[in-house]
Amino acid sequence: MKVLVTGGCGFIGSNFIYYMLRTYNDIVITNLDKLTYAGNLENLERAHKDYGPRLTFVKGDILDSKLVSEVMAQKFDVVINFAAESHVDRSIEDSSEFLKTNILGTRTLLEAFRRSGGLFIQISTDEVYGSLGHEGKFTECCPLAPNSPYAASKAAADLLVQAYAHTFNLPVIITRCSNNYGPYQFPEKLIPLMISNAIEGKRLPVYGDGRNVRDWIFVDDHVCAIDLIMRSGKPGQVYNIGGDCEKRNLDLLHELLAEMECQLNLPPQHFHHLITFIADRPGHDLRYAMDFSILAKELNWRPKYSFEEGLKATVAWYIENKSWWTRIKSGEYIHYYDRMYKHRLACV
Question: Could you tell me the pTM of the whole model?
Fold first, then answer.
């Protein structure tokens, strides 16, 4: 099987590549990635060393129609679009790159794909559904009601994929997943940000009162679901993927810090003085929760890892790979984060 992965040097994309190469001997992957601030070729250094010719890297932008067409001319069995601008705070500050990459980039891929064939899988997000109240879960039939520029750009991309599928009779599948966590996640996201800040003795910023609820899934469970969908999913279907693990942000942070204190042999509550409540994010969705019963029924998928197992593995990885995230946080990212954090703190 020949697979084209876009955005494979990012968090979920790199974990997917590792999973597929170690699980199957008959798969060959081409990874097209622009290497933006969140795309790190170092993430796949071990994969290139261990799997050699089965993994090819092409540096490029999914907005580059000439390059995308040349790559897709290789006739892949499956094209999986992980490439996206994905941080809500950055989309609030400036949405332009989100509209370009997430919408126009997806359009460029679809144009090339309809000439090359195969199966197209669009990796989307639960955020396209908007916000839930205190009860209920998102199903695939829920209307799209995005509340941030990031979510709106992903919803637009989903609609574009469905429109191309209908107009040009293309085999496409859309997946929408809840909050991921695990190795190689860029440290602007909640869990790696809190781990790295705590180790560095920096404040742990919590939006509002910390009661916003998210549904958490360990990244290995997500990529396993994508694998099943790639091999046995129905073209034209949207599949929700969830962790069946709802947690308030503040409760998650307390569990995370307790796990860190355990692994670092520190006394209980050692990090808790660093927790700092800051002004809430504009338009902050209250709650996400995914109903993945279609995926469970059709493909017999359920999350394998409990939150405790996934959290333990994640904390251990970030402790053991401090040099990885230290290098990242010393670059462009830290200047953005400091600016955002100081602004939110000043608003309290």
Answer: 0.95
pLDDT in tens, 216-253: 999 999 999 999 999 999 999 999 999 999 999 999 99
Residue 264 inside a domain? The answer is no
* 126 is a catalytic site residue: yes
The count of structural domains within the chain is 1
Give Cα 113 to chain centroid, integer Å: 23
* Catalytic site residue from 33, 61, 85, 126: 126
123: domain CATH number? Answer: 3.40.50.720
CA gap 126, 145 in Å, rounded: 11
278 domain residue, yes or no: no
Active site residue 127: yes
Q: Which of 61, 127, 220, 285 is catalytic?
A: 127
Is 239 inside any structural domain?
Answer: yes
- Rounded CA-CA distance 223/181 in Å is 12
Full domain range(s) for residue 37? 2-184+216-245+283-307
Instruction: Give the active site residue among 18, 51, 150, 181.
Output: 150
Catalytic: 77? no
Q: Is residue 334 part of a domain?
A: no
Instruction: Report pLDDT digits (tens) over 136-172.
Output: 999 999 999 999 999 999 999 999 999 999 999 999 9
Per DSSP, helices labelled H in 96-148 are 96-98, 106-116
Strand 172-177 relative to strand 119-125, pairing: parallel
